[in-house]
Fold this sequence. Notes:
The complex is a heterodimer of chains A (274) and B (151).
Chain A: H1 11-36, H2 44-56, H3 59-86, H4 91-115, H5 121-145, H6 156-168, H7 172-175, H8 178-208, H9 212-252, H10 264-273
Chain B: H1 4-28, H2 32-35, E1 38-47, H3 55-64, E2 76-79, E3 84-89, E4 92-101, E5 106-111, E6 116-124, E7 128-134, E8 140-149
Pfam families (chain A): DUF1275 (PF06912)
Transmembrane segments (chain A): 59-84, 96-115, 127-150, 184-206, 212-229
Keywords (chain A): Membrane, Transmembrane, Transmembrane helix
Amino acid sequence: MLRKFSNSRTLGDNIKLGTLTAFAAGMVNVASLLLFLSFSSNVTGYYAIVAAEIVKGNWYQTAVVFGWVFLFFLGSFTANFMVIHLNKRNKYFAHSLPISIEILCMMAVGLYGEFFYNETLVETEALLALMLFAMGLQNGLTASISNFAVKTTHLTGTTTDLGILFSMFTKNEFRSNPALRGRALLLSSITISYVVGGVFAGIAHFHIGFKLFYIISLFLVIVIGYDAYKISMVRYQWISVRKKNRQLLTDTGAQDNIPLKTDTSTLEKERSVC
Amino acid sequence: MLTKRWLILVYAALFTLNIMGFAWMINAATNPEKAILGQWKEAGWHYERVNSKTDTLRKEVYYRAGNEPVVHKAETWSFLPDGTLVLNREHGEETASWCIKGRGNILELKYNDGRKEHYDLTTLSDDSMTLNFELDTQIKGLAKLTFDRLM
Lengths: 274, 151
């Protein structure tokens, strides 16, 4: 899900990444709307609000919204910065670091909200700022590693693309195109997942309040944990094969003369993973 | 072509400029949480986006808000710094708690029975305040309350 980059990613990788992160984004957006009465994952509307607030002369609101938009931008910048600068050292680390920071942000919002939040305006704005930064991180990362195929924090582009795709499907030549069908499947999964996440958050918030952010963090842990598990499994298989080969060589007593047999496919897998 | 050092300088300058612009705007503007403090007298309760101001429509507006009729008439609202709102009515006084949410544009009132009301803080100046009663986060402007500052 996270360890592959750009064109080496399969449709399955993108669907897994897209659905899980869209579910988290849907939850974050609805949670922020219900708890702080403001959106936290879609910035399109905020550009319009900045313009409207400037016209009205509401400089306080202009500054706040400008700050939120800038933090979303900064999140996206940070995520892609990490991906392109740390990719060569360790691909998995580079791709999971932005999600790890996002988890920290979500945990911070959850813990602060549960134990310290006094509903002052500064607190509300700061917590929203943290959420917008986290959403920028998530959107920047998913878009960056999937070659802009997966964007999960807002659905404007997704809905537009789905509209185009479904209109294309009215012609048989496009309908039978596997790439277009795959894209439609990916975008539909993201949309459904986002909405389901939002509905879940809407119901859960009434019962658990700020604890909802722990659930969001858990989902993000699944995103990074899935790949960590895959990597450790491949490593384990590789070590087992090596152990078996060594044992075989020791048993035959020809350690120096017979070349070491290795499972090349496992080795290749290991290389692609790391 | 920009060298790496120049690039870092340009990025740092842009970042600093953004932070400075933000800090300047926040300091120059009045925080709505402070601007709202004081005593306000209800000056009017207007209905918008209705074709005819019939009682039926009014009732609908009241009841859709939260299963309970929500009518504020000829009240004095006192916003205290500790987050308490004192509503002085003809037949007594009621307290609630208040807070401002969103980007400083939503006034949330919480009554002692758990009832919540949300108002869009449309105008907040030294001498007047306009609140748009919110029935839903995306629907507003059905009912508008205007206030004059008393003190």
